[in-house]
Amino acid sequence: DAGVIQSPRHEVTEMGQEVTLRCKPISGHDYLFWYRQTMMRGLELLIYFNNNVPIDDSGMPEDRFSAKMPNASFSTLKIQPSEPRDSAVYFCASSLGRGAYEQYFGPGTRLTVT
Amino acid sequence: SQQGEEDPQALSIQEGENATMNCSYKTSINNLQWYRQNSGRGLVHLILIRSNEREKHSGRLRVTLDTSKKSSSLLITASRAADTASYFCATVDSGGGADGLTFGKGTHLIIQP
Question: Which residue of B has its CA nearest to A56?
């Protein structure tokens, strides 16, 4: 398996623009997680899905953030409108099960909002 | 919010020496995991220790867990230049509702050749 795939790897956009980040989890994994990493706040869980259903989105910072998982092999994280403070590395991870299972991380998308 | 707090924030040692990193957390946990992140890359799972375990080994890695002190340590023996990376502890709460990982801010380890 190719592992968790994320696209794009880098995104530079202007404030106010819509940004869509994409993730393909490892086949057969029932859980998908979106994390954000910044120097100031470290790694934060934004939202996670189980069998394509959002379970906990309490980490989503604002209504400007939304995430979907239309099928087992694809998820998106959308920011609309984007702001400079959204600049971060966004990671997608997947796992076989809950809790006691290791998570497999994608390479991340480095987002820069100017 | 940050659950784990790693100590030290940065560590520089000579190749061949052992490296020890510590992690403290605040809530009751189901398990604690350690991850490695090379510069500019995603995180890679190293080892998982369950709340009813006290010590676990994997190759050159040794992890301990003290639930009474809410702390864990990661020992890397016979360090190599390739071990240079940031190391994060991550916990899964035992509250039953949360399945995501709560990460500490990490220890940046530098192995001097």
Answer: B98
